[in-house]
Amino acid sequence: MEKKTVFSGIQASGSLHLGNYLGAIRNWAAMQYQYNNYFCVVDLHTITVPQDPATLRAKIKEVAGLLFAAGIAAENSVVFIQSDVKAHSELAWLLNCITPMGWLHRMTQFKEKSEKQKEEVSVGLFDYPVLQAADILLYDTHMVPVGEDQKQHVELCRDIAQRFNYRYGDVFVLPEAHIPPVGGRVMGLSNPEKKMSKSEEKKEDSIFLLDPPDQIRKKIKKATTDSLRDISFDEKRPGVYNLLTIYQLLTDKSREDIENHFAGKSYKDLKEQVAEVVIESLKPLQERYHELTGEKGYLDDMLERGAIKAGEQAEEKMRQVTESMGLK
Ligand code: TYM
Question: Residue 228 sits in which domain range?
Answer without folding.
Answer: 200-291
